[in-house]
Amino acid sequence: MTTFWMAYLTALSFASGLCVGSFLNVCILRIPAGQSIVRPRSRCPACGEWIAWYDNLPVLSYLLLQGKCRHCRGLISPRYPLIELLTGLLFLAVWNRYGFTAQTPLYWVAISGLIFGSVVDLDHFILPDRVTLGGIASGLVFSALVPSLQGELVWSGALVRSAVGALVGAGILYAVAVAGRWWLKQDAMGLGDVKLLGAIGAWLGVQAVLFTLVVSSAIGALFGVILIAIDGLKWKSRIPFGPFIAGASVVWMLGGDHAWNWYLTWIQGGQ
Ligand SMILES: [Zn+2]
């Protein structure tokens, strides 16, 4: 590969991520409301005017319009370009790490589902089944079709690893949910989180489940303490846990597995 082609493909994966992010914005608004994601075209939520294609380019249009609707000058939420940028950067990071392997397109799909699920969780306190149960089913299927996803050469071995990952992921959080209900006499953990960690296990295996659990709990706890400190938030207030789980699993995809292996070697006193 020449440098030119590598630069071209790198730019292309970033641009693809920006466009997918733009589509995710549409899904995030419309799927929970039960609307079609295909038609009609988008309208300005303030004035109801149709948005032309040149005002709907990911990130670029937001910058050109200086964050305001062309017709009514109403403010456009910075959330739209931020989700587009996040998707673009994560697509780029996956391409940089995995290049010409089956992981690249599959992880792009996984990351899209995780971003969609996380933002819906932030908005509605619910993780859609199409992300969580869909993630478990697609994780099992893709592992059998692409055994390298589980670091295996044979489809049956990969399928077993995927199934064990799903069971351990969902099992651990289900136990936490049951214990929490018994101890706190209220629902401490949603079933959506249980199914989401199952999906992460089905896609990435048992090690990823453990890494995700540790990292998401640590970041979630830190976040909770900061909120309590600055906002006087009561500890019983709900914070959706889905985005933390999703974020930690993306860290794993992009290099957490390297950090984990280094840590294990270090603990064992090697190297
Ligand atoms: Zn408007």
Description:
This protein has 271 residues and is an all-alpha fold. Helices cover 69% and strands 0% of the residues. It folds into 2 domains: 1-100, no CATH class; 101-271, no CATH class. The protein contains 9 helices and no strands. Residues 44, 46-47, 49, 69, 71-72, 74 line the site of zinc ion.
The total count of strands amounts to: 0
Radius of gyration (Å): 20 Å
Tell me roughly what share of residues is in helical segments: 55-70%
> Biggest sheet, in brief?
none
Low-confidence stretches: none
Judging from the principal axes of the Cα atoms, what is the shape? globular
Tell me the count of domains.
Answer: 2
- By oligomeric state, this entry counts as single chain
Number of helices: 9
Order of helices and strands: HHHHHHHHH
Class computed from helices, strands and strand pairing: mainly alpha
Hetero groups bound? zinc ion
Task: Output mean pLDDT.
Answer: 90
Proportion of residues in β-strands: under 5%
The N- and C-terminal alpha carbons lie at a distance of: 35 Å
Main attributes?
single chain, 271 residues, mainly alpha, 2 domains, 69% helix, binds zinc ion
Q: Would you summarize the structure shown here?
A:
The protein is mainly α and 271 residues long.
